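quick q for whoever's on today - can somebody do inverse folding on this one?? i tried earlier but teh output was garbage lol. tokens:
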């Protein structure tokens, strides 16, 4: 299931003690190193498909990816 979150919705999830999810920054590695949301995993978009199962398979939670989209 694919769903888009607004900035406000994601902010609410980040500060909710009830929501369990895995946040993944899909921007390039340099961008992740310089600035990312605390707690996010860094998996560049070009590596996401190849590494998703390896890094996310054991997580029984919603996976939310984010990038620098103007939306």
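ok took a stab at it. sequence:
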């Amino acid at each position: 299931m694919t769903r888009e979150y607004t900035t406000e919705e994601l902010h609410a999830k980040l500060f909710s003690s009830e929501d369990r999810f895995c946040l993944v920054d899909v921007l390039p590695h340099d961008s992740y190193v310089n600035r990312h949301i605390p707690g996010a995993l860094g998996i560049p978009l070009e590596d996401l498909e190849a590494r998703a199962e390896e890094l996310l398979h054991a997580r029984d939670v919603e996976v939310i990816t984010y990038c620098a989209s103007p939306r």
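fwiw The first helix runs from residue 7 to 14. also The chain has a mean pLDDT of 85. so keep that in mind when u check it
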